[in-house]
Amino acid sequence: MAKTSLSSLLTRVGLDWFILALLGMIGLAKLWPEPGIQKGLFSLSSLASYGVSLIFFFYGLKLNFNQLREGLRNYRLHLVIHGTTFIVFPGIVLVARSLLVAPDTELLWLGIFYVAALPSTVSSSVVMVSIAGATFQQLFSMPAFPA
């Protein structure tokens, strides 16, 4: 009964197990940051590499090989996504910069241009593809590199 009342209280407050685990990890990192800072099995770069690999592995388990081959041949989709990411978005920023130029904002515009030209991260691409109901091969056409 105590477990039920605790879970209902957490649900009413808007907390679920993922939020609690996330807050717990933040607290653990604050108290014990050394494993994430040092190179080794639990370093940030190692965990990021493993995480990206696991995302693609588990998502790929649902993959139909024929759909993958068909999606990789869809060059129009690849051109639209890459053109939007690397030409349209940076172009919008360059146009906005020319309209709103000021001498003391050069570094700000450099940062905005950098973010506009960056492709999305792998995790956000996977989430967006899942939400959109698209297929996994369309994920491969997105320029997704771990940031």
Top keywords for this entry?
9 helices, 147 residues, 0% strand
Task: Give structural notes.
This protein is mainly alpha-helical. The chain has a domain at 64-147. Helices cover 75% and strands 0% of the residues. The protein has helices spanning 2-13, 17-31, 34-37, 44-60, 65-72, 75-99, 106-117, 122-132, 136-141. The mean pLDDT is 75.
Quick structural overview:
With 147 residues, the chain is mainly alpha-helical. Helices cover 75% and strands 0% of the residues.
Q: Assembly state here?
A: single chain
Number of helices: 9
Element order: H for helix, E for strand: HHHHHHHHH
Strand segment tally: 0
Percentage of residues in strands: under 5%
Helical coverage, percent range: over 70%
Query: What is the rounded Rg?
Result: 21 Å
Unreliable stretches (pLDDT < 50, length at least 5) are: none
What about the largest sheet? none
| Gap between N and C termini | 44 Å
Average pLDDT value? 75
Derived from helix and strand composition plus strand pairing, the structural class reads: mainly alpha
Query: What best-fitting shape do the alpha-carbon axes yield?
Result: extended
